[in-house]
Amino acid sequence: MTNASGLNNHHTDTLTAIFQHPASHNIRWVDVVHLVEAAGEVDERHDGRFKFTIGGQSEVFNRPKDKDIGIEQIEDLRRMFRGTDFEPKKPGKED
User: 0.90 exceeded by the pTM?
Assistant: First the structure.
């Protein structure tokens, strides 16, 4: 199922986990890649790093050594998604 922002439920769950406080320590890299592919662009570079572009912002990420992303990557993703149509709405806030 896809919502109005073009994200499916799995993408939405990953995005919610990214914005969760305190930060979740089990956000899988593969889920983040799929989320960014749905919300923007992913370019795997020749050096094995990944360039994510969301809403005109680009950031280069290293694939984590294990399956989950780290706190610094979560903070970078929050910054990239903040202010876009994909940022989760705060409970009780209406547009």
Answer: no
Longest dimension (CA), the chain: 44
Digit-coded pLDDT (tens) for 17-75 = 999 988 888 999 999 999 999 999 999 999 989 999 998 899 999 999 999 999 999 99
DSSP states along 39-50: HSEEEE-TTS-E
Distance CA 39, CA 37 (A): 6
| Structural contact between residues 19 and 82, judged by C-beta atoms closer than 8 angstroms | no
Dihedral sign computed on CA atoms, order 23, 29, 39, 74: positive
Q: For the chain, what are the domain ranges?
A: 9-81
User: 9-81, which class in CATH?
Assistant: alpha beta
Tokens of 3: 């919502």
